[in-house]
Design a protein that fits this description.
mainly alpha, globular, about 180 residues
């Protein structure tokens, strides 16, 4: 039972391929459903892990990695279609890649970075922006009001705050201690 959160994270990783497939064949409702299902499994695995004390180091890595790959897949698709401004996608993409590289570096140093409220809030806004971006295909008012772009900008700001926060808590102390 204690492996259920990690199994859900693994399923979420597999859902990245499902999302990409549906997007490639222009099945945008299926993309939206896949993304929402991935978001819900993220909530469920986090809830189960915390509630039952099933938190593992592999889960601390696998969970955010699945989230990042799903987001990067969606951003790549949106860039390809021109659905969101390219410069905003580039900022988000660079931030996510920096987080993956930083987490891998810290993991090799036996430091596991876990998500906190800054990251969770940014992730929630990114998920909402993805849902709104896909949703404007069905509800043009979303596009007219630019709700997807507004929420995406908020997500980027929160993500950059999270990046600085994670670096301050995890990376900077390690680099500072090496100098001494």
């Amino acid at each position: 039972m204690r492996h259920i959160p990690n199994i859900l994270s693994t399923i979420r990783l597999l859902m990245v391929g499902v999302f990409l497939y549906f997007f490639s064949v222009e099945r945008y409702l299926a993309c939206l459903i896949t993304y929402i299902a991935a978001f819900l499994t993220d909530l469920l695995d986090g809830f189960l892990a915390r509630r039952n004390n099933w938190i593992t180091n592999i889960g601390k890595v696998l969970d955010p990695l699945a989230d990042k790959f799903m987001l990067l897949a969606a951003l790549s698709c949106f860039w390809y279609k021109g659905w969101l401004p390219g410069y905003l996608i580039a900022i988000a993409y660079v931030k996510e890649v920096l987080m993956i590289i930083g987490s891998a570096f810290l993991f090799r140093k036996n430091v596991v970075v876990y998500a906190d409220w800054f990251g969770k809030l940014a992730s929630g806004f990114f998920s909402l922006s993805v849902a709104l971006t896909l949703g404007k295909y069905f509800l043009p008012t979303i596009g007219t009001l630019h709700l997807d772009v507004i929420v995406f900008v908020i997500a980027i700001v929160l993500a950059l705050i999270a990046l600085v926060h994670y670096a301050k808590l995890n990376l900077f102390p390690m680099l500072h201690s090496k100098k001494e």
